[in-house]
Design brief:
Rossmann fold; 3 domains; four-stranded parallel sheet; transcription cis-regulatory region binding; single chain; elongated; 12 strands; HTH_LacI; transcription; six-stranded parallel sheet; alpha/beta
Length: about 325
């Protein structure tokens, strides 16, 4: 058969009978043939590849990756992943995607400076997720509103001493800290902010310090779910009941939060919605539907998910 006819079959394009298609597919299966997508993209002069950087140790980033795959496929794009790990920095992750000829980039919670991100956005279309960056397209949750909702939930239960475990310099940390302080001030509460972090180990360390101080708060609001899980583990192992003695709330609504033996109250981020908005914005840039100088800060509201780790304080 001619190369053109085989191409028609492999692309599932009109122009070949069913018997011909069956013969070609059987022959391809027998010899293990697969079309070369890179060669096809070279002929089309477009790769239709979207590059994605994310942190390999963040569960919420994994949820976003899944949503980005779904949204990109619906718009006819493929996704190339490049993870950031303790031994592979963000600059290396970006270089890999540029070498793969990705047409645009999505970066989840990037740690690069705003200046570096601005320079990157000047080179090719870029959308940042889970962080606000002036002069660059951004898609994020309203972290301030999420923190306010968490504090208001605890205040509504009757808690007055609410300790907030901060996320340091992580993307969204400044906004969540601001939301906590805003809600605490509105409720007339003393602000209690301590170093937290992004992992279970960070939460466990903070809980150990808290117990050693000898004065427990009514409730702990952790920067994210992983930090909250570390707090819960240390409290329970120390004979302190959750939520009877101390209520605990997290942020993200990770898969672990809803497990029957954890039941963590948390602030849910709409990962699927955030992913869809980010991909749509990037594709609009790739298709020339967005003026080069116009940038947008696209924000979606998080929601409170109440489970068994929060309850009214003991009378």
């Amino acid at each position: 058969m001619s190369r053109a006819l085989v191409s028609i079959v492999m692309r599932d394009a009109p122009g070949a009978s069913e018997s011909t298609r069956e013969r070609v597919r059987c022959a391809a299966e027998e010899i293990g043939y697969r079309p070369d997508p890179q060669a096809r993209r070279l002929r089309q002069r477009r790769t239709r590849l979207v590059g994605l950087t994310f942190s390999a140790h963040q569960e919420f980033h994994a949820d976003l990756v899944d949503g980005i795959y779904v949204a990109a496929e619906a718009l006819g794009y493929d996704v190339v992943l490049s993870a950031v790990t303790p031994h592979r920095d963000e600059e290396r992750a970006v270089r890999t995607l540029l070498d793969d000829r990705c047409e645009g980039l999505l970066m989840v919670g990037p740690q690069l400076s705003a200046r570096a991100l601005g320079e990157l956005a000047a080179r090719l279309p870029l959308v940042v997720l889970a962080r606000r960056v002036r002069g660059v397209d951004a898609v994020r949750s309203d972290d301030v509103a999420g923190a306010v909702a968490g504090v208001e939930h605890l205040v509504g239960l009757g808690h007055r001493r609410i300790l907030y475990l901060d996320g340091g310099t992580a993307p969204g940390a400044a906004e969540r800290r601001r939301g906590y302080r805003r809600a605490a001030k509105a409720a007339g509460l003393l602000e209690l902010v301590a170093a937290g972090g992004l992992t279970e180990r960070d939460g466990a360390a903070a809980a150990t310090v808290m117990i050693a101080a000898g004065e427990l708060p009514d409730a702990v609001f952790a920067f994210n779910d992983r930090c909250a899980l570390g707090v819960m583990d240390v409290l329970i192992r120390s004979g302190i009941s959750v939520p009877q003695d101390v209520s605990v709330i997290g942020f993200d609504d990770s898969p672990l939060a809803g497990l029957a033996h954890i039941q963590l109250t948390t602030i849910r981020q709409d990962s699927a919605g955030l992913a869809a908005v980010a991909v749509e914005r990037l594709v609009a840039r790739l298709d020339g539907l967005v003026p080069g100088a116009a940038t947008a800060d696209l924000v979606r509201d998080p929601t409170l998910v109440v489970r068994g780790s929060t309850a009214p304080p003991r009378s």
